[in-house]
Amino acid sequence: MGHSHSHGGGAEALSAGGRHRSRLAIALVLIGGFFVVELVTALLTRSLSLLSDAGHMAADVLTLAAALGAATVAGRGDRSGRRSFGLYRIEVFASLFAVLVMLAVAAWVLIEAIGRLGTAPEIGTTGMLVVGVLGLAVNLVVMRILSGGARESLAVKGAYLEVLADTVGSIGVVVAGVLVALTGSALADTVVALAIGAFVAVRAVMLGREVLGVLAQETPRHLDPAAVQADLAALDGVTEVHDLHLWTLTSGMDVATAHLRVEERADAHGVLDAAQELLRTRHGLEHCTLQIEPEAHRTDEESAW
């Protein structure tokens, strides 16, 4: 006896990213608008730290746009009939795109900083400080908007980490502006730019590891396969649990499949209902596919043993 089920309500009921589209849209408008201001000011003041922060904010814009697009597309049904899981994984690929953008920004900042070593450009600290403070305020507001969704969605988390890194960058711009104003040296501006690039790279690697774990169908960290298997095996009538698989399809949607071998006289329907209830309440697994096998049932491979 096989059984599979999914909960209704469309992709948005299952995709965490779909539930936070409005957050992403508001954040995109705020960050996109301020990016133009920061870029123009960076070019006028000749501040590398401000320019690197503007580059990072451009990455924010791309990341937010990709996350919003992914959340929107994931909420649409599949008309081809060939995608049995729909378009949920678009959200994960959007997170991978965010990682690549962050790494590209970090590399660009490093190249620019190396090219400036040994030069002494004049930097307009007033504009640099004003925009740095305003950028910090905008980033804090956007972080607040995205904070709730970042706990549920990988795409929103990618955007949140981007804005978090940019917040640190804004603080660095303010610090660099103060130091340049006090010392008259552009060295602080270059050092802060390098620090921003390094921070962006570290955050990108951390998010990248999480994204690759999902794409590799690793067992989610909050689930213990041994505990899940032991709990299923302890159900009345179950004699063996095999072919247990646990993975994350997309943010907020963990998936499980398993074969349960049961006693000949066991109530198969009762075992199935008990197993589903156990996985849902004890392990938070809503989307499961379970196959019930009578004790006498053996596959060709098992019969050959």
Automatic annotation (TrEMBL):
Where is the protein localized?
Membrane
Residue stretches making up the Cation efflux protein transmembrane domain: 25-215
- Identification of the protein by name: Cation diffusion facilitator family transporter
Entry similarity comment: Belongs to the cation diffusion facilitator (CDF) transporter (TC 2.A.4) family. SLC30A subfamily.
Q: Which domain of life is it from?
A: Bacteria
In terms of InterPro entries, this protein maps to: Cation_efflux, Cation_efflux_CTD, Cation_efflux_CTD_sf, Cation_efflux_TM, Cation_efflux_TMD_sf, CDF/SLC30A
The scientific name of the source species is Brachybacterium rhamnosum
Q: What is its main location?
A: membrane
- Keyword entries, A-Z: Ion transport, Membrane, Transmembrane, Transmembrane helix, Transport
